[in-house]
Amino acid sequence: MLLQSLPLVFVLMGVALYTVLGGADFGAGLWQLLAGRSARGERIREYAHRSMAPVWEANHVWLIFVLTVFWTAYPEALGSIASTLAVPLFIAALGIICRGAAYAFRAGATSARESGLIDTMFSLSSILTPFALGAAIGGIATDRVPVGNAAGNLFTSWLNPTSILIGVLAVTTSAYLAAVYLAADAARDGSHELELAFRTRALVAALLAGAVAFGGLFIVKADSHRLFHSLLSGRALSGVIASALAGLLALGLVQRRRFEAARYLAAVAVAAIIAGWALARWPTILPGLTVYQAAAGHDTLVWVIACVLVGGAILFPSLALLFRLALTGRFRAAEHAAMDATSHAPSDSRRGLLVRSAIACLIAGFALLNVAEAGWAHAIGVVCLLCFIAIAFRAIIFGALGATATNK
Amino acid sequence: MAVSGVSLAASLAPVDQHYLLEARQMQALSFAVHIPLVAFAISFPAMVLFVEWMWLRTGDQLYQTLARRWTRVIVALFAVGVITGTVLSFEMGLLWPNFTGTFGSVFGVGFAIEGFSFFLEAIFIGIYVYGWGRLSPRLHLLSGVPIVITGITGSLTVISVNAWMNHPGGFRLQDGRVTHVDPFKALFANTYLWHELVHMYVAGYIVSGFILAGCYAFARLKGRWGRYERTALAIPLTVAALAAPVQILIGDWAARDVAKAQPTKLAAIEGLYSTTRGAPEHLLGWYTQDRVKYGIEIPHLLSLLAFHSWNAKVQGLSAVPASERPPVNIVRIAFQTMVGVGTLLALIGVVYIAIWIRRRRLPESTWFYRALVACGPLAVVALIAGWVVTEVGRQPWVVYRVMPTSAAVTGASGIPVGYAVLAASYVVVASGLFWVLRRLARAPLDLPSSDPSVDPVPA
Ligand code: HDD
Ligand code: HEM
Ligand code: HEM
Question: Cα–Cα distance between B267 and B258 in angstroms, integer?
């Protein structure tokens, strides 16, 4: 039982982390769009780009994590979801293409016009992607995705009141999270003007998100009575309440310029609503398909869980390192490399040895890989060939680099 | 196993998808864009680290400049690699929901580890790129090492999935349900994995080595040939020149594995219709009416290469029904292109090394540099051609002899629309990438001006 549910818990945690971290990333694009063309707007756009550039790739990979764990542990559910919700998922993929491309292209922009153009492409895709992903979630939540290969409606499954509501909510939440992140960043940088600018944006976005969420309850009630009821009763209700409380508290912290704490509380708000929703549905994934039916076999689940645990143990410290570097810039300033006048070119006798061992590796590799038949021989042969490349490189490169100094 | 014998998870029944061909082409397009970028991702960081290490050891500013400029190229390539890879992940569900839905539990673990690898790779690329000037030089160099390692583990796991598709194992099919899944056995205890991994990994160094060398060879042809350009040419060229001849030996190993595991693919590669003892090999030519026309026949060579024996029996295409044969000419031409280019690249490599051993200098002939400029694109052609051999040669199966591609495809409509939109956005991304890289290349060199050897030298 635990074995079959645990991967889904990981997936939901991934969704929550993607909403918070990836969401901040998307929201930055929205603020760039709204910043306008004035000099101040230019500064805001530049700042939003600069704070996100080091972390966006890491933020983005949560989505890959969610996808791969989901399709490994609940393959049938993924097949059904991806085929029915093909349109919003494809739109999200397009948005991701444009956003990533914009990050790549901005390195080459030299004029304000160029970077403005790239920022616009970035911003539009930053709105499109969370909207499409939110709409897809809405389709699942309102049971519009049946089990089967493209068994649901390709359009009404995600173009329905609840989906649109969740899409809009995803965009406004992203805007809020981004503004808080950027305000915190600006505060650390000591840039008071930007800090205030982002704080105002955070407050506006928070109020907007709250209003959408509250008003949305009525939309959900009209659209999907079942979802409405399950959210406002029993296990889910505590999640909804916790989420609302955490959201309000975070708002107060933003007001008092305690941005770091506000980010954590905002994350709690997101996690609580996701947990509430999951509990309300538990153990159903899709109509007629429970977690236990959808789950892969025993060995696969054990492997997935082991991978996530081991991977997480490596991942989180690395991620912390990245954020520390990106957020504080508090690492030691660059020192100069040690001046080391001695030449690294191997002496002639040493080079002779290197050349001879390289040739020996090449011959041994050929004999073991290409003449012999046994598997173990092939393994050693490959290693010999790779050693040949490495040793020969060592033998040649220093001389070649020395030659570049004089060669024409 | 007959095609109709493949019953799938009942809920994910095969559908009649009118646009199967478009779906296949969309998948192929996405790979053709992703894989050259990936070739850089697995090899370029190691070269940058070598240059940075040279800087640390010699204190020569030129190496630092080079490493920093190359780092900027990595950032652009990595960003595009990430998005094209994400598109591929989406396509697993969007185009092939039945494949993922039926076998996700078998191969998914490979992608899950891959996901972690790329996660770590993205993190350390962030640290490495933005750590220039913020971390101490030694720590900075160290922060690059995980990028190299995760590049290896990432390609290992993703290729393990491909190897499983080509040589499936580690599960049983009972009443259309996949049972007795053993992911480890399926993915990593698969003999087919190793040649693919090594061949692809070495290909990564060949592709990035020749493309980089080609760029600086182009600079030389344009009259820019300072010490900076010479250094930037020598490092990737030395790697690629050594890797290219080795690739032929590894390719031979790959071919022998294919002969054992996928005789039909081998028969398509060679255009061999009937099972033959002492089978000949044909260079060039065109496969039509069950034989190769206009080719140059070399008697017994196929038996000799594939099975190391003069008269070994080689299974022909006729051993399987016509509906189970891949499109022979595509596979054959792709294979001959790969081998032709591979031989050429190896020759160029040998010329470079021979000149170095005999004269202790870089080649001087303008022709050598002209050839080098052509080698970069050719290496990419060989890379794609190799994947065409592997993937198209596996058709009509998506999981070899278990699930036909037609049973894997989505039932959703609108594939042509998606295909057109994706192709258009890839054109935009490719031209944008080209534009950025040119911009980066044109940024002025910030080398210490006291170094006289960096002045442009007319060729
Ligand atoms: C720069 C690239 C490059 C070069 C020069 C070569 N190859 Fe290659 N080849 C690839 C890049 C590649 C690859 C990375 O694209 C493939 C696709 C799948 C794989 O494992 O590697 C491949 C596949 C591949 C396969 C099919 C393997 C399979 O289906 O599993 C064979 C038989 C060969 N190669 C053989 C050769 C030979 C005999 C070469 C001699 C010159 C050669 N390759 C040069
Ligand atoms: C790690 C795994 C994989 C690798 C490296 C890989 C690689 C490739 C490449 C390079 C091509 C052809 C490129 C070209 O024609 O230009 C290709 C084609 C294709 N791949 Fe794969 N592939 C992998 C997994 C998959 C998966 C998961 C599927 C889906 C079910 C798939 C189905 C196809 C199909 C249908 C084609 C088109 C064949 C045709 O045009 O006839 N492959 N693949
Ligand atoms: C079905 C096939 C494939 C899928 C689904 C896939 C998926 C992905 C994804 C999702 C990423 C982005 C990771 C990130 O966000 O950081 C990525 C990047 C990458 N992929 Fe693939 N990939 C496939 C084929 C391949 C193949 C054949 C290789 C071969 C070695 C490969 C090697 C890489 C590498 C090294 C990266 C690192 C980032 C970069 O490109 O710069 N992938 N891939």
Answer: 10
A328/B contact by beta carbon, under 8 A: no
Chain B partners within 8 Å of A63 (Cβ): 86
> B35-51 in b/e burial notation, b at 16+ Cβ within 10 A?
bbbbbbbbbbbbbbbbb
- Cβ of B123 within 8 Å of Cβ of A86? The answer is no
List of chain A residues whose C-beta atoms are within 8 Å of the C-beta of residue B440: 107-108
Query: Phi and psi dihedrals of B398, rounded to 5?
Result: -95, -40
- A286 close to A139: Cβ distance less than 8 angstroms: no
Q: Give dist(CA B399, CA B168) in Å, integer.
A: 7
ipTM: 0.81
Ligand 3 atom closest to the CA of B86, numbered from 1: 10
Partner-chain contact B104 A80, CB within 8 Å: no
CA B114–ligand 3 middle distance (angstroms):
8
Put simply, whether A398 touches B (Cβ < 8 Å) is no
Mind listing the pLDDT tens digit for each residue in B255-314? 888 888 888 888 888 877 777 776 677 777 776 766 767 767 776 666 767 777 767 777
Q: Which residues contact B162 (CB under 8 A, 6 or more apart)?
A: B196, B390
Calculate how far, in angstroms, residue A29's C-alpha sits from the geometric centre of ligand 3: 25
- Chain B touched by A91 (CB under 8 Å): no
- B149 CB-near residues (< 8 Å, 6+ apart): none
Please name the residues in contact with B445: beta carbons below 8 A apart, sequence gap of 6 or more. Answer: B65, B69, B228, B454
Ligand nearest the Cα atom of residue B259: 1
Interval A199-250: pLDDT, tens = 888 899 988 988 888 888 888 888 877 788 888 877 788 888 888 898 889 8
Ligand nearest, relative to CA of residue B246? 1
Is residue B339 within 8 A of residue B251, CB to CB? The reply is yes
pLDDT in tens, B407-456: 777 777 777 777 778 888 888 888 888 888 888 777 766 655 434 344 33
Share of chain B above pLDDT 70, in %: 88
Testing ligand 3's pocket by substitution, the residue of B27, B38, B70, B164 carrying the most ligand atoms inside 8 A of its CB is: B38
**pLDDT at residue A152, as a whole number:** 77
In the three-class reduction of DSSP (H, G, I as helix; E, B as strand; rest coil), residue B108 is classed as: helix
Q: Taking CB atoms and an 8 Å limit, are B13 and A344 in contact across chains?
A: no
A148: nearest Cα among B266, B130, B15, B138: B15
Q: For residue B48, what pLDDT is reported?
A: 92
Indicate the residue type of A96. Answer: I
**Burial tier of B410 (Cβ tally within 10 Å: 0-12, 13-18, 19+):** buried
Tell whether ligand 2 has an atom less than 6 A from the beta carbon of residue B20.
Answer: no
Within 8 A of B191 by CB-CB distance, chain A residues are 375
d(CA A76, CA B176): 13
Which residues are near ligand 3 (CB < 6 Å)?
A 57, 60-61, 64; B 34-35, 37-38, 41-42, 78, 81-82, 85-86, 88-89, 92, 118, 121-122, 151, 154-155, 158-159, 200
**Residues paired with A284 in a beta bridge:** A290
| B270 C-beta closer than 6 A to ligand 2 | no
pLDDT tens, position by position, B66-82: 888 888 888 888 888 88
Q: Which structure tokens are listed for A186?
A: 């600006």
CA of B148 to the centre of ligand 3 (A): 14
C-alpha–C-alpha distance, residues A278 and A282, integer Å = 6
